[in-house]
């Protein structure tokens, strides 16, 4: 029974994967431009291995022993646990951090994400809203779309018996109850009004950020991305957007754990591809698109395996993996560590030992002292005698 429950938890955690995490590595990644949508679909972007997160848990746990009030160490450790699907432990760490430094944006952003990953959507939304209230523009405003997606899932009945796809509509338009129409309702107060190009681009960027920093194989995120790319002004801004929508749905069909869901995603893919063929007079666009995607997924995985091999090697060599990763993949040179000043004990030698006075010098100095005292005594005697005569 425990194995089945764990299996179900891992499935739900991987399905959701709507992350807006904040740790030391997120800050470095934020400074890099987001990769293109296609690279996110294939997994062709810099990311860490499972071995790295095992190392990070051990490293930050050890550092917290000597620096127990460092809030950044709590963030790092909690995110590492979340990446290993231990979100309850991550939540516990954020609770501890909140007692040390209450009211931090990073605490609420992480806490909200951990609750979402744990399937507690209402609680997750509560903390995401707290984070947004403190810093609405953080992560390029990504938390706003994280909140919207969580609310959309609740509206769709996300829970224990939830089944993918989120929207069962085969070929969506703005009147259908997809994530796109949900955004229209939120941003336009009308599900029938389309998002403008800027609003669509912000939404795409928000979902892409969740894919990059969360679970890039999440069918929920891939479906949401496909919904936005295939509808409204985003569809008309670039011809390639509808190609990317096709691939997003196709990728969702590969990553979901349900044959029935996979079948519906494929139907979405084929329906959208046929519409694209009618619009641009292309012959069978889906086979070439999906063939190239499958090839590029394999190439991306090879690149990732090289990253993994490097991280394993650095761990085995006892190096600071964060430092090496930043140097190799972000081009950030490690800060020079302050040199320890060695205190050299001065040895007593003949040259630095104070010389002792000789016996003759001691006698001579004593006689001089006596003569001076006698002279002073005579002077005092003469002065007193003269005063008596007067």
Describe the structure.
It is a single chain. The protein is an all-alpha fold and 390 residues long. It folds into two domains: 2-330, no CATH class; 357-390. It is 69% helix and 0% strand. The chain is built from 18 helices and no strands. Helix 6 (87-100) runs antiparallel to helix 7, helix 8 runs antiparallel to helix 9 and helix 14 (239-255) packs across helix 16 (285-316). The longest helix is centred in the last third of the chain and has 32 residues, at 285-316. It is elongated, with a radius of gyration of 36 Å. The protein starts with a helix and ends with a helix. The model is unreliable at 1-14, 26-34 and 344-354 (pLDDT under 50).
């Amino acid at each position: 029974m425990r194995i089945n429950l764990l299996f179900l938890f891992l499935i739900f955690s991987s399905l959701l994967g709507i992350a807006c995490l904040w740790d030391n590595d997120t800050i470095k990644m934020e400074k890099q431009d987001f990769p293109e949508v296609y690279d996110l679909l294939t997994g062709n972007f810099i990311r860490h291995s499972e071995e790295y997160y095992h190392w990070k848990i051990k490293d930050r746990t050890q550092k917290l022993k000597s620096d127990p009030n460092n809030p950044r160490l709590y963030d790092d450790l909690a995110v590492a646990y979340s990446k290993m699907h231990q979100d309850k432990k991550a939540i516990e760490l954020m609770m501890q951090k909140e007692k040390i430094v209450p009211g931090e944006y990073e605490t609420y952003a992480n806490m909200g994400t951990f609750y979402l990953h744990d399937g507690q959507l209402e609680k997750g939304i509560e903390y995401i809203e707290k984070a947004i209230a403190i810093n609405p523009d953080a992560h390029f405003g990504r938390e706003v779309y994280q909140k919207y997606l969580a609310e959309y899932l609740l509206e769709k009945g996300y829970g224990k018996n939830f089944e993918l796809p989120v929207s069962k509509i085969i070929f969506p338009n703005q009147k259908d109850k997809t994530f796109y129409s949900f955004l229209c309702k939120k941003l336009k107060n009308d599900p029938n009004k389309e998002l403008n190009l800027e609003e669509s681009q912000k939404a795409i960027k928000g979902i892409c950020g969740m894919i990059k920093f969360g679970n890039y194989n999440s069918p929920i995120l891939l479906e949401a991305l496909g919904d936005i790319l295939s509808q409204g002004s985003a569809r008309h801004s670039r011809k390639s957007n509808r190609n990317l929508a096709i691939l997003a749905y196709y990728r969702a069909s590969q990553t979901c754990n349900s044959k029935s869901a996979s079948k519906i995603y494929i139907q979405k893919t084929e329906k959208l591809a046929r519409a694209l063929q009618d619009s641009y007079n292309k012959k069978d666009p889906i086979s070439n698109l999906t063939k190239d995607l499958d090839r590029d997924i394999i190439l991306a995985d090879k690149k990732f395996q090289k990253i993994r091999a490097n991280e394993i090697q650095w761990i085995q060599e006892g190096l600071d993996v964060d430092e090496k990763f930043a140097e190799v993949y972000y081009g950030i040179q490690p800060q020079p560590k302050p040199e320890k000043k060695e205190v050299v004990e001065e040895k007593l030698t003949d040259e630095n030992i104070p010389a002792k006075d000789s016996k003759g010098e001691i006698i001579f100095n004593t006689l001089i002292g006596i003569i001076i005292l006698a002279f002073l005594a005579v002077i005092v005697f003469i002065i007193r005698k003269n005063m008596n005569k007067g």
